[in-house]
Structures are given as structure tokens and as C-alpha cells.
Amino acid sequence: MKRIVVHGSEQNCQVAVMENGRLVEFYAERSSERGRAGNIYKGRVVNVLAGMQAAFVDIGMEKNAFLYIDDLLPAHLEKQPAEKPSILELVKKGQDIVVQVKKEPIGTKGARITTHYALPGRWLVYMPHADYVAVSKKVEPDKEKSRLKEIGDSLRRSGEGLILRTVAGGETADALHNDLVQLRESWERLERAGRISQPPALLYQDAGMLERMIRDLFTNQVDELLVDDEAMWREAERLVAQMAPAISGRLKRHGGKEPIFQSYNVEEELELAFRRKIWLKSGGYLVVDQTEALTVIDVNTGKFTGSSGLAETVFTTNREAAEEIARLLRLRDIGGIVVVDFIDMNEERERKAISDELEYHAKGDRAKPNVVGWTKLGLLELTRKKVRQTVDDMFYEHCPQCAGTGKLLRSRK
Q: How far, in whole angstroms, is CA 63 from its chain's centroid?
């Protein structure tokens, strides 16, 4: 059972994704602090650093945005030069440039930007200069992938790029064409605005939380979409009728006496999931420590003693931890480098089974975690893409007394 629960108010929109009664994803957006990932700006280059092969661009944010050379080279890998040129050959200080935010500013870092523009629609992603067609790996069977690839090739103009999304599976060529026409028109409006705008200027703004949720998450795999706020309910009706009319009957208005998040235990699950110490059902527990450089997760047996020996206890705890870690990465939107200190295992086959378990439970994660492998010290390394501000960043702040260390200085007296 997959359910999407939406709580709305004048101040914010909060979206909870539940699978079999458990919270697996949570998103929140304040109306006064709308995200910038996906937005396209006309900016001005303020500095070019040849040693870093990067440039800093003023797009109107508090911190200048970071543009790496890979995001200036052609999006199509086959069209990139065999050796990277100096970034000084591609951009100059004072130059106007149109860029898209690929990663929100986080902590002390400014936004990460690119010239590989991508406009997402319901069925496909339009890339005006990519010059290739790709199909989501999640589309099955292979025959359907081939059909979509053929449609994409027939629809795109020379130089254009398309990605056929997972939800495009089974859709008609006409539906895909209509989506492409709308995205082309958006790009043409953006280009016209770019020619007359003075930097820094916003040329294109990605959809708000509710529209992104219906566009990206409300698919045939969702059994129910529940909304509590009246105004948001009406907007959801309009968007579903436009984007997903075939499953419009799954959109429902929450009419219970209890607040919607209380009815589905969202608040309780959130509170538990964002603790530093997280208990597993068996009695084992995880300790999650996030730093600016990486996230470290420690696995412990805790109260769990097993029934047939130490090896069985360790393997059972690690297997349960792998499933929970996959959920926490997705729910807390943990990005960057992640290192997991599982309880030591002697057998290589056991380590492989645990990494396979984590990969299996991470399949539903749209950020596609990459399990790198085991280090010589027996730690499991993985990476995960992070694009938007996390719930941690939005609703939690560092303690003013300990400055986020979790420790206070003892009295020296």
C-alpha cells in the first residue's frame, strides 16, 4: 500500500510518502522560501579560477554560484573533447551566461549550477542542447524501452535531447508529443526573456511543491493521494485532471477529525527518524552523525542477543540495519559521502549479502544511492545525490550553547 499524505497551510506545504504504513519520504516547502533547484537564471561571471577549472557566477543569491568546467562542456559525452580545455577558453570575467541550479546552496557552499539545461514534464525531460534520447532504467520490459526510444527519436528535433521518464511507460505517442510541445514553448519563452533581461535575472522557475509532487510522485504505483487543505485540494484536483486523469479517483480529501499527519502517524515517525540514536525492531540500534564532509552511521547490537550464537546475532542485526539505513537515507535526504560501520563480519559472503540488502531496499530511492563497496577497515562506503535543502536544515538548528557539537564545556573550578 503506497499513500501520499499532503498537509497544507498558507505558510507551507508538507508531503509525506508512506509505504505499507511506514514513512519513507518527507518534503516541506515554505511559501516564503521556495526552493531554487531547477530554476534557470541569467547571471554574470564574477571570477574564473583556472586552477580549480571553475567559475563563480552572480545569479542574485547571497553567495555566488559555483560552475565547474564539466557543466560547461557539451552534455553529450561523445561531443566532449578528448582533453578538457582550460576554463579560461570557455568563460570570461564579466560575461553574461544562462545557467540552471542543479544543487541548492547548502551550509557555507553556494548553489551548484550548470549549462546542461533540463525542463521536466509529466512524461519526459526536455534538454534543448543534449542531442540524445534516453529512457529511464526502471521502464520494463525491454520491448517497452525500445518503443519509447523510437518515439523519442521521432519526436525530437536535431540537437534536442529527451529523457523518457518511468511514468511514460505505456503512454501514447500523442501524449508524449503534447508534453514535448509544452516544454518546447517554455524553453522558447525562456530564451526570449534571456535576450532582454539584465543579470542577475530569474528566467524560469521550477514548479512548487504540490505540482512537483503530482508530476513526479503521483503514479500508478500510488494507491491514495490525501490532501487536507481546501485551497490545496482544489489545486490538486486541477493538476491531477491535467497530468494524471486516469488515476484521478485516487485523489481524496481528508475529512477526519484528527489532523491528517496525526491520523497517519507522520509526526511520530518523523520525530523518531531524526534522532541521533535510532532503535531497530530487534533491539539493535543505529547512531547517525552528520558532518559537512560526510555522514557516519554506526550499527550496534544493543539489546538484541539472538538465539543461536554471535555470528547469527551480528548478521541479523546488520541485515535489519541495512534496510533501515536505506529508508533513512531517503527520508532524511542524506547526501554526499556516507560511511556505515556495520558490526564486524568474518565472511566475505556475509558482507556481500549486507551490501546487496542495502542496494535492494534503496531501489525505490529516486536519488539512486551508489554503494561503492567495503574498505580495508570493514566500513561500507556509498554516495547519494543531494539536490534540495533537507528537512534537517529546514526545521532544526544548531544548539546555541554547544554550537552543534552536542557537548558542553565542563566547569574548570
A: 22
335: helix, strand or coil: coil
Residue 141: asked if its preceding bond is cis (omega within 30°), the reply is: yes
Alpha-carbon distance of 357 to 332, in angstroms, equals: 19
- State the angle between helix axes of 142-155 and 173-196 in degrees (0 to 180), rounded to the nearest 10: 50
DSSP reduced 3-state for 29: strand
Q: Are residues 325 and 355 in contact, defined by beta-carbon separation less than 8 angstroms?
A: no
Sorted by sequence, the CB contacts under 8 Å of residue 231 that are 6+ apart come out as 8
CA atoms within 13 A on the CB side of 200: 18
| Sequence spans of domains, the chain | 2-34+207-267, 40-114, 119-202, 276-395
Residue 17 has which C-alpha cell? Answer: 510518502
Report how far residue 225's alpha carbon sits from residue 1's, in angstroms, rounded to the nearest whole number.
12
Q: What is the CA radius of gyration of the chain?
A: 23
Residue 182 CA: distances (Å) to CA of 118, 189, 246, 322: 13, 11, 20, 42
**For every residue of 360-409, which 3-state class applies, written as one string?**
HHCCCCCCCCEEEEECCCCCEEEEECCCCCCHHHHHCCCCCCCCCCCCCC
CATH class of 2-34+207-267: alpha beta
Per-residue pLDDT reduced to its tens digit, 152-181: 999 999 999 999 999 999 999 999 999 999
172: helix, coil or strand? coil
Distance CA 375, CA 95 (A): 45
Q: Report the amino acid identity of residue 381.
A: E
Question: Which has the closest alpha carbon to 382: 367, 370, 390?
Answer: 370
Measured distance CA(286)–CA(340) in Å, rounded: 10
What is the overall mean pLDDT for the chain? Answer: 91
pLDDT digits 0-9 by tens, 183-233: 999 999 999 999 999 999 999 999 889 999 999 999 999 999 999 999 999
Please state, in angstroms and rounded to a whole number, the distance separating the CA atoms of residues 369 and 383.
6
pLDDT in tens, 71-115: 999 999 888 998 999 999 999 999 999 999 999 887 778 999 999
- Superfamily of 40-114 according to CATH: Nucleic acid-binding proteins (2.40.50.140)
Express each pLDDT in 198-209 by its tens digit. Answer: 999 999 999 889
